[in-house]
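Example 4.3 (complexes with small molecules)
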Amino acid sequence: MPTNNFYQQDILTADQFTKDDLQHILAVAKKMEKVVNTKGSLDLLKGKLMTALFYEPSSRTFGSFVASMQRLGGGFIPLQGVQYSSVVKGETLADTVRTFSCYTDIVVIRHPDVGSAKIAAEFCDKPVINAGDGVGEHPSQALLDFFTISHHFGSLDGLTITMVGDLLNGRTIHSLSKLLSLHKGMTFNFVSPDILRLPSNLLEKLRERGVKVRELETLDEVLKDTDVLYVTRVQKERFTDLDLYEKLKHHYIITPTLLKPAKKTAIIMHPLPRVGEISMDVDLDKRAVYITEQMRNGMYVRMALLALILLKEV
Ligand code: NCD
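Answer. The structure with N-carbamoyl-L-aspartate bound is encoded below.
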């Protein structure tokens, strides 16, 4: 096994990973998959504790971090729904994370503000994992999405990835496109309404990295060449104008009819939750991996991350 670069490290942004790092995490995630499928759990992290500090709603990210910690034999403090914590008394993020770094070995944080995980990490003397900082990033989701794509296709070379929906506010897209762009041979299609286009600085970064990038408003032209169709929800919570949200929320709806021209070998992904942008009858399509592979991989990847951060050798 390669040296563990993650021991006691924070996971704050997809920018921090090298190609070798990704391969290392993937290898450990594969081991975790085997463990879950054979023994169900192991006691690698016995005696270790995780704080799950969630200032924003979450089902999958929260649930899979908790499941991961428990399958590795560790424990956790669930702080979900911070309306019941001292945060409502006006406690600062700094004080909250400093407190929980005294009780536990790692802090997983989700917060509405961009950069909040970085601030938490500055005050926390235990490793911090960014589980979503507003419209910023969601690196652990990107890792599980990356794992799903690499696992499914074997190699990323020559793949065409089409990301559709709210590219401006969707943090999963921001982190995943950064990870994928480490592999030069990829093509990206970013499909969104004009006002929900990918942030221009991110677009520039991807172009600088030498990947092929196109921005479009419809899927028509690109669906037939797409290997990965990554669908996202329009992020209601980021809109101040709810009428505008209503107008945009179902701008794209993926249906079996729409998918007719798509490749037989393509996969359809979504970080979930979905709120109507993929119709339920697409779930029966073999290409739909959002409630199957992608979901399961979330736990294997998060198990790998927790183990790599908390143990010198895995
Ligand atoms: C995503 C998130 O929170 O950014 N959900 C998740 O973590 N799986 C996507 C979303 O909420 O639309």
